[in-house]
Design brief:
By secondary structure, this protein is α+β, with helices and mostly antiparallel strands. The protein contains 7 helices and 6 strands. The protein folds into 2 domains: 102 residues, no CATH class; 62 residues, DNA Binding (I), subunit A, CATH 1.10.30.50. It is 26% helix and 18% strand. The chain binds zinc ion (ZN). The site of zinc ion has 8 residues, from β6 and α6.
Length: 186
Amino acid sequence: MLWQKNYQWILRLPNCFLKTNYYVDNEQTYTLKLDASWRPIEVIGSFKAFNMCYSGRAQVVREYEDEDMYPFPAVIVLKKYISTRRINLHCNRKNVAWRDNNTCQYCGKRFRFKDITMDHIIPKSRGGEKSWMNIVAACKKCNSNKNNKTPNEAGMPLIKEPYIPEGNIFSYFRGIKIPNEWNDFL
Ligand SMILES: [Zn+2]
């Protein structure tokens, strides 16, 4: 396929180049992911989208036309998977801060986004996963006080239980400018 030829240059690049490539570092470019019934289910970094197409799990539906470099996929469609679930929100700092309302789940105070960290309830060093049920927003001070302990060991109870937030496709648009290329699919 033609688009595969276009993309092969990326896979041939040595790692050191990939790390300094601004597409990879900043992930400024996003791709709308549709399931096999063409329903939007997720927004992902375009580099990941490209990988999914290259590995054959998805197909490019539309490319960004105004990029100076090689085009990245703007919209992709999965070949097989049809989503029966609600939108999965990524468990990242931005979304955790949103779920927990910028509030430290240990001291209960609100902070500016830049002062919110992600705390592993069961510490990472002890096998705690980066998942919605094991990550809460914490201020820097509480995070460092808790250190490698569980809430019990640290004597720092959570102010509420973590939960998996319900998302819809528009949850992804916080902070992302919706590209024109997506309009036909939303
Ligand atoms: Zn705190």
